[in-house]
Design goal:
The complex is a heterodimer of chains A (280) and B (318). Chain A is α/β, with parallel strands linked by helices and 280 residues long. Chain A has ten helices and five strands. The two termini of chain A are 26 Å apart. Chain B contains twelve helices and 14 strands. Chain B starts with a strand and ends with a helix. The chains are: A alpha/beta (280), B alpha/beta (318).
């Protein structure tokens, strides 16, 4: 996928339909992986599926056969626990065979519980501990700024993750250096591991925080492919923060907005129901 | 082989670090410096003047500093990430683990003013745990240079090596060593003096003291081998086995007695060539005092090293 092909391709509506269709596939794939492995993080996989689909199936400029090409756009998955969705999108984008998704969490699989670039093409940096993605993304963006390179850098963080101080250390540098090639996407599902973010340590007013750190801020529905495509395609003179309002567990009724599905595995009956709901 | 000697002058290894980095940066535009506001204490003022666009100061933010370093490496740069060793390693330990070592990012971490260089500033500013924290990290090369020449060689070797490296750089004045055959290779220990009664294995600012101790022992008819173990990872196990062949080994480091050079040597000796050992270093958080006072108090002096060697030999004779 690259920007040149897209420019002459479909109109926004058709592109959005493609992103939505692929997002639904990511959801089904992630749940299949979780059921086969009998563990995983379904809540965050489902909340981030549309964002990942918009990135890999529309916005990002990359060649999965040359995963280290210097001019590639970078995507950094700071919420590294959401590997069901992340591995699915990487396989769907051609970084490795889709059949390999069935090895998720199996002994010696390249598909570890958290992504490792030392095993798997398409992973830019190893994540898992929270608050690591943004500083690394800022470093890549500075390298691009020094070289006056065209590539863009995207990082997806959870919202609870923003309680880590390292995020704001990096945000300060991003704002100070006016890293216009940097886009932070917040998967704002409002739930952290055990409770709502606002009951734990409140993040609001979140847009104001990013703005105060020198970012342009766009708030969108993180499940609206058109809004995602448009927001992620925007590039101004300052770094960009896209606050994507999402629903943890999106697409599977009994998981939606349930903190208990942060990690876990559906029963066979629940899995069957989930597939029916995601078939539409 | 003729024995190495210490010279009369004293040098600050940070000067060798920055001079080498500047020279390398002129040749290779991928080299950038990343700092946590430590432009002055890392002595990088001239680098900043020469390469203003290649000096990335993230402010007082060590976690971001190391993460940004990993990102710069991803973007094709060769970042030298410099900060006081106590903060670089302690504050950003998880970033060193996940973003640098585990991710195999081509980042060079320079721990400045390591050990007890900050003397009276106390245990918060001492960095006597850094080697114990970093030594178990897979993929991470760890180098503790002994003098200006070796510091310069270590910086050059790190820049040429594709992978994560930690270099421990002291601010304490040390003499330059006169070597018969100066060669530096990552992972190779340097035998500075042959000897077969006892072996002294040291690194960093303790190496010249170990040489002086060997000279004092020679006057008493004790033949002490001196090994500079500047590469802590990868470790030159053969050099340790050769040292153990003397039958007694003293290790000396400006670090905790736990988990550093002494620990590394003990792991090899205990499993492959058991022999009596003494580990010289610091026992824990240190009381208030100057660098010289603290080195004296814990026996990290020429006399202290020689005494440890004599003690081991006396035990063997008994």
């Amino acid at each position: 996928m690259n920007r040149d092909n897209r420019a002459e391709a479909d109109d926004l509506e058709a592109r959005a339909a493609h992103v939505a269709e692929r997002a639904n596939w990511i959801r089904r794939s992630a749940l299949k992986m979780i059921v086969e492995a009998q563990q995983g993080h379904p809540g965050g996989d489902l909340s981030s599926a549309d964002i990942l689909s918009a990135l890999y199936f529309d916005v990002l400029n990359y060649d999965s056969q040359q995963p280290n090409a210097p001019d590639r756009d970078r995507f950094i998955m700071s919420k590294g626990h959401c590997t069901g969705a992340f591995y699915s999108v990487l396989a769907g984008a051609g970084f490795f065979p889709e059949e390999e998704l069935s090895t998720y969490l199996k002994p010696l699989s390249r598909l570890n519980g958290h992504p490792s670039r030392t095993y798997l093409p398409g992973v830019e940096t190893n994540t898992g501990p929270l608050g690591h993605g943004l500083p690394v993304a800022v470093g890549v963006a500075i390298a691009g700024q020094i070289d006056k390179a065209d590539f863009r850098v995207f990082v997806l963080t959870g919202d609870g993750e923003l309680q880590e101080g390292s995020c704001w250390e990096a945000a300060m540098t991003a704002g100070h250096r006016k890293l216009s090639n940097l886009t932070v996407i917040v998967d704002r599902n409002r739930l952290q591991q055990g409770a709502p973010t606002e009951d734990t340590v409140a993040l609001e007013p979140l847009a104001n925080k990013w703005n105060a750190f020198g970012f342009d801020v766009v708030e969108i529905d993180g499940h609206d492919p058109q809004a995602l495509i448009q927001a992620l395609s925007h590039q101004g003179p300052r770094p960009l923060c896209v606050i994507a309002s999402t629903v943890k567990g999106k697409g599977v009724s009994y998981m939606e907005n349930q903190a208990g599905w942060h990690h876990g595995c559906p029963s066979p009956a629940q899995y069957e129901q989930a597939l029916k709901e995601l078939a539409a | 082989m003729s024995d190495a000697k210490t010279t009369a002058g004293l040098f600050d290894c940070r000067e060798a670090y920055v001079a080498t980095l500047e020279a390398l940066a002129h040749e290779d535009e991928r080299i950038v410096a990343v700092v946590n506001d430590s432009v002055g204490s890392s002595k990088l003022g001239k680098f900043r003047s020469a390469f203003p666009d290649r000096m990335i100061n993230v402010g007082i933010a060590e976690q971001a500093m190391v993460g940004v370093g990993a990102g710069l490496a991803n973007g094709g740069k060769i970042p030298f990430v410099s900060g006081a060793s106590c903060f670089l390693t302690g504050r950003a330990l998880e970033q060193i683990k996940a973003d640098v070592a585990y991710s195999q990012a081509n980042v060079k971490l320079c721990g400045i003013s390591s050990g007890i260089a900050y003397g009276e500033l106390g245990p918060t500013h001492h960095s006597i745990e850094d080697l114990a924290w970093l030594r178990p990290m897979a993929n991470l090369t760890v180098i503790v240079p002994s003098d200006p020449w070796e510091t310069s060689e270590a910086i050059k070797a790190a820049a040429a090596f594709n992978g994560p490296v930690f270099i421990r750089i002291s601010r304490m004045p040390v003499p330059a060593l006169e070597r018969a055959n100066p060669t530096f290779t990552i992972g190779k220990a340097e035998t500075l003096r042959e000897g077969d009664d006892v072996a002294i294995i040291a690194n960093g600012i303790m190496v010249h003291r170990a040489l002086d101790a060997a000279q004092a022992l020679a006057a008493e008819g004790i033949s002490a081998r001196v090994v500079n173990m500047s590469s802590l990872t990868p470790l030159d196990e053969q050099a340790i086995l050769d040292a153990a062949a003397t039958g007694a080994v003293v290790t000396v480091e400006e670090h905790s007695v736990k988990g550093g050079l002494g620990g590394a040597v003990a792991e090899v000796i205990a499993t492959q060539a058991p022999c009596p050992m003494r580990i010289l270093g610091f026992p824990g958080f240190l009381p208030t005092g100057s660098v010289e006072f603290l080195l004296e108090r814990y026996g990290l002096t020429t006399d202290g090293i020689a005494d440890a060697a004599r003690g081991l030999l006396a035990k063997r004779a008994a």
